Predict the 3D structure of the following.
Amino acid sequence: MVFIENNLNFTVKEGDIGIYHINSMDFYNILQDISSNKLIIDIRDQDSFTQGHVRCAVNIHPPTHYSANELQKFNMAKYIGENVTAKHWNLIFNRIILYSDKPFFYNTDDLSHASMDTIPNVQPLSLLDWDESFLNHMVSRKKKINVIYVYQGGYDSFYKEYPFMCGKSKISFADLYPSEIIKNFLYLGGKENAEVLVQLKNLKITHIVNMAIELEDYYPHQFKYYRANLEDRYYANIHQHFLPIIDFIEDAKKVNGRVLVHCAMGISRSASVVIAYLMKTMQLTYVESLKFTKAKRSMINPNQGFVKQLKAFDLELLNLKKQKIIDDNNSNSKNNTQESLEKQNEKDQQEQKVDKVKDNTNNSNQDEKLLQDINNTNNLILDDSTSKEEKLLKDINNNNNINKDEKDANDANDANDANDANDANDANDANKHPISLL
């Protein structure tokens, strides 16, 4: 059965085959893994391979030199056998890495049913389908191999990220780089990685954690070191270094640095603190961190004493996590209570404002009524006063008229009396002096 996976932790059962889609970092780490034999096959054209290729790769290029008739009866097994390194690929190697100059496109159903019956040795070949045909043949002819890694990025993409892993046909143990645990940041390796300056420069390392008591700090003036001075013994206290090393690595992250953690072989001491770092910073359990690290560097194997201390650290982190949940719940409860009080106070204040507005409205209405009453009273007073004034004026006028009439009557009487007096005087005078008729 064929499994197509992106997860390198997925384990393929015996008799089945797994096709893993890998990224550039996975490809890089597989190149450093010496735990099992592997064959890297570049299926680009010959000219492209000659210009540059991944280290240790063999080139099985498209048969462009074949005639049209030869392609109609193409024997894939015979063609692959012409390459000495790849001749017995399905008997010698248990892992195959394929890459081209572009992503692979294939039919999943065809791969699932690929066998010697469905894909015979001799059949027509289209050069346009070279990648797919080659992959189908590898799946159908599996014997010892049960894993095929398919790099979908294309050679140029890998070269852009890891140019120092390209171009050489041969490789020695000293050329193995440290494993990349976290992309462009955290690396795990051994003595050879710590002492080869060109590797440290290529990986742009800035900080180094040296876990080995037997190894010196090779470049103390060029890199920032944390030195543990620890033996690879089950009784060694590695736990005391967990938090200080985690802080050291986090400090490197803050300045965009890159960290190499190493011991002698990159198997036990350095692997243990990397696992502890992942547990703390990625919120992983011990088992999850172990699997995560093993997928990047399959050879890791912390000693039993370190495993015991890692599990104790796992329990500590779990208790801290539980306590944080309790504290957060208490804090949330307190905040909720405070928030409820604040909301109630806000509600009370709002109600008070509403009441005040109502009071002001009522007072305003009362004030308007009072003003209206005052105005009405003033109008009544004014009207009454006006009436009284008018009456008084009328009375005064009437009195004046009466007095005038009385004065006129008196004046008339006085005039009559004066006339009567004059007449009397005249009569008296006549009596005293009679008029002569002569």
In short: The first helix runs from residue 24 to 32. The mean pLDDT is 83. The longest strand covers residues 224-230.
